[in-house]
UniProtKB/TrEMBL annotation:
Signal peptide residues on this chain, from the entry's feature table: none
PANTHER family (UniProt xref): 1,2-PHENYLACETYL-COA EPOXIDASE, SUBUNIT A, PHENYLACETIC ACID DEGRADATION PROTEIN PAA
Protein name: Phenylacetate-CoA oxygenase subunit PaaA
Taxonomic path: Bacteria, Bacillati, Actinomycetota, Actinomycetes, Micrococcales
GO BP term (any one): phenylacetate catabolic process
SUPFAM superfamilies, alphabetized: Ferritin-like
Cross-referenced InterPro entries: Aromatic_CoA_ox/epox (IPR052703), Ferritin-like (IPR012347), Ferritin-like_SF (IPR009078), PaaA (IPR011881), PaaA_PaaC (IPR007814)
GO cellular component: cytosol
Lineage: superkingdom: Bacteria
Length: 324
């Protein structure tokens, strides 16, 4: 809402809102010290904290495969990728803290089930090929969604996304390479790759969120230039990107309606099962309970690390005081 259309704004609030609107209109960045409407702040806290939660919950399906990766090289690569995801969580939690919410509050919202995280991590990853599909399709969808977020109007979010996107593109390539190795392997390996792609394709398309007509937040987030493209536009971009990659791999994307549309200059694709998406959001996906239980246990088991870090920081601060 602009200053002119805000019925309740006092004169000073109206001028702050006008200054904010002008920054957005000029594609300038909003920084933590700038005034911002409360609804803008809340939207950012919601999206950025959900994004941070997705990164750390997203460590689980792959973390679970580190000990079972088929070679030392695959283990080392997977371990590095999972560590990157922890790092992404940290950048995003830090960026969200600039909006006046603490990390403890955000984690509490995750652990009590109040905050969402990406639907995709409520699917199980039972085969090694799933490490390929997660990298290729899940990280691929993440990149398609996140590259425009590098230009998000909130400075700390956009800057965090630049580094995250660089790492995600490495993640996507390593997933593609796992699938390529399997597709160049035995018939059993090819079947394993295809079976995995069959399971991850539709959930990856759902990562972009509900169709535009059912997306309550998109319009305002796009007006504030947090989101630069709609959910459906990004989903279409992703489908257009992966079809030639699937052809190169030799896997079939499990959608009988998938075909090139000459008039639109895009691939048409079939309707997704949105009932499944909403069921996963409500908590009845394959792995919702498992993911949250593991996250809570990891938090409890990490209590001694947080205590030690606090004690160290206090000691460092008191010796600095003594020295000055
Ligand atoms: N899963 O109005 P809408 C990663 C919710 S991490 C769950 O369109 P918005 C990776 C949505 O929150 C990937 N919930 O919302 C990590 C909203 O509910 P609330 C994470 C979803 O925010 C490790 C409601 O549905 N990426 O890739 O305008 C390893 C209505 O939706 C989902 C990000 O978080 C979903 N898929 O648009 C490997 C990117 N979709 O909050 C990989 C940043 C929608 O009103 N986030 N909902 O209760 C975004 O770009 C946007 O938040 C979304 C949704 C496009 C996801």
């Amino acid at each position: 809402m602009s200053a002119a259309t805000s019925p309740t704004a006092s004169p000073s609030e109206a001028s702050k809102l006008a200054a904010f609107d002008a920054l957005i209109a000029e594609n300038q960045r909003i920084e933590p010290s700038d005034w911002m409407p409360e609804a803008y702040r809340k939207t950012l806290v919601r999206q950025m904290s959900q994004h941070a939660h997705s990164e750390i919950i997203g460590m689980q399906p792959e973390g679970n495969w580190i000990t079972r990766a088929p070679s030392l090289k695959r283990k080392a690569i997977l371990m590095a990728k999972v560590q990157d995801e922890a790092g992404h969580g940290l950048y995003l939690y830090s960026a969200t803290e600039t909006l006046g919410i603490t990390r403890d509050e955000m984690l509490d919202q995750l652990h009590t089930g109040k905050a969402k995280y990406s639907s995709i991590f409520n699917y199980l990853a039972p085969s090694w090929a799933d490490m390929g599909s997660i990298g290729w399709l899940v990280d691929g969808a993440a990149i398609a969604n996140q590259v425009p977020l590098c230009r998000a109007s909130y400075g700390p979010y956009g800057r965090a996304m630049v580094r995250i996107c660089k790492e995600e593109s490495f993640h996507q390539r390593q997933g593609f390479e796992i699938l390529l190795a399997l597709m160049n392997g035995t018939e059993a390996q090819q079947r394993m790759a295809q079976e995995s792609v069959d399971r991850w394709y539709a959930p990856a398309l759902m990562m972009f969120g509900p169709p535009d007509a059912e997306s309550p937040n998109s319009q305002q987030s796009m007006a504030w230039k947090i989101k630069r493209f709609s959910n459906d536009d990004l989903r279409q971009r992703f489908v257009d990107m992966i079809v030639p990659q699937a052809e190169f791999l030799g896997v079939t994307l499990p959608d009988p309606d998938l075909r090139w549309n000459e008039d639109r200059g895009h691939y048409d694709f079939g309707e997704l099962d949105w009932d499944e998406f909403y069921a996963v959001l409500r908590g009845s996906g394959q792995a919702n309970a498992l993911r949250l239980a593991k996250r809570r246990a990891a938090h409890d088991e990490g209590a001694w690390v947080r205590e030690a870090a606090r004690a160290y920081a206090e000691r460092a601060a008191s010796s600095e005081r003594l020295a000055s």
